[in-house]
Amino acid sequence: MQEINKIIHKKIELNYDEGGIEVQLNFLINEDHTEIAIINIHSSFESGLPNSATFEKTDGIYNLVATYFDLKGRKIVERVNNKYAVDIVNEILKIQKQI
Question: CA–CA separation, 50 vs 67, rounded Å?
C-alpha cells in the first residue's frame, strides 16, 4: 500500500444561465502519482449530474462516472455525458496540471 504524502482540497464553481454548479474534490498525492478520492457535486438547477462521481479515463477520454443501484439492487455505472460534465472534466484536468 502506498503512503499518502498530501491531500489537496479544491473547489470549482461554474455559472450558467440556468444556475450554478459547485464541485468539491480531494486529490490524494503520493510520491509517484495523484488520484482523485472524492468528487462531490452540487447544483442550483436540474443539471443531470450525480451528487457524487468518479473521474475515469477510458480509451484516452476522461469522463465523470456515476454509480448507483436500481430498484432491483443491480449496480449501474454510467458515464455522465452532458455539457456540464464536459466543463467539469476540463476544469479538473486544468487543476491536475497545476498540482
Answer: 9
Rounded distance, CA 12 to CA 57, Å?
A: 20
Residue 85's closest CA among 56, 5, 33?
56
Separation of alpha carbons 76 and 68, rounded Å: 5
pLDDT in tens, the chain (99 residues): 556 689 999 999 999 999 999 999 999 998 878 899 999 999 999 999 999 999 999 999 999 999 999 999 999 999 999 999 999 999 999 999 888
Report the C-alpha gap between 2 and 88 in whole angstroms. 28
Assigned C-alpha cell, 2: 502506498
Sheet holding 54-58, edge to edge: 54-58, 61-69, 75-80
63 close to 87: Cβ distance less than 8 angstroms: no
For residue 43, the cross-strand partners are 21
Residue identified by cell 443491480 is 74
